[in-house]
Amino acid sequence: METVPKVNINALPALKNTTDDMIAPYLKSLGYKQNHTLTDVRLVIGFAACAIAGVTFYYDWTAGFEAVKGGTLYAVIAYFILNTALTFWIWLVEGGTIYVGEKDGVKITISTHTEKHSPIYHMKITSVLPGTSGPHTVEEKSSFTNWFDEKGYFVAKPFKAFLQDSIPSLAAKSPEAIALKSKTKSVKS
Amino acid sequence: MSLLDLLGLSELKRLNPRQILSQVLNIALILSTAFMLWKGLSVATNSPSPIVVVLSGSMEPAFQRGDLLFLWNRNLDLHKDPSSFGGTQVGEIVVYNVGTAIPIVHRVVRRHQGEKTPLNLLTKGDNNNADDIELYPRGQWYLNREKEVIGSVVGYIPFVGYVTIMLSEHPWMKTALLVIMGLLVLVQRE
Fold it and tell me: Where does the chain cross the membrane (chain B) (predicted)?
């Protein structure tokens, strides 16, 4: 039983996050296997940094500043190195990637972004097909109004059509995609 | 379910474990970054409490209640040649901790070497009539610079510390502030 999410249509992050969240379940239903490495590395770096801070807090609290200040120095250095690594990972490695998955040897990576004060969903899909050289990248964009109604309820059908239309390996010529192709104003760029 | 809806947190219900962990991580990183910045400053200044707020009027007119003070505790120079006798000088304002609940900010009015301690200080509040011997532990006539002083004042910002006075005198404000900040972090996914 799937509940239909409702968002504040005036909040761009809510529109983007809700839309992002819809991609993985849909691709899963099509048989794609999601790869969580990017997220897992981020979580490991982040929680390792927090663990250092936690241990520092414990010793500082129980033994006092003077007794442990030598160790505190190294903990502070290690913490900020990890924090820098985390920032680097989020900005340069993840870079807005919200999905990495694979099916039958086809690996797709999807990253999305929005621009300030613009209700347009930008999606960049990188596919690696078996037997081809190098990744194949397409960029698509479409207005959030295509899959959110005026009350802010997410409407799955047109969004699935947009995905099928946008992701090359999904171009299964499903009836949904063809029927809605004229409605979703996707722009090739 | 209805509770989350009432709080405007219904979005949380849709999150998968990794997304929940990511949100928890966001909160933990904010708290730990604040803590580690504080500890970094402590280590850099060699002071357990490098920023303090003035709580009393005993140093008026130099400092008012609510002033934020920045401390430096690397000016000890305890074991220099006695003829040069470096370290904290008369006229400097120091913050010390002699077992009272809160640290005290007062000016150095006299200094001398002790038999066992290389640098001792006598302090007095500018706005007080008497020196601080009354405030020291019974039978003690001086401050041990190394053990009891947590730093010399090297800079200040007027009034901004009043926020913390408000928060500590009205503890419910602190709780409310923490709860509000926590909820905001939890709900916002930016």
Answer: 20-38, 148-165, 171-187
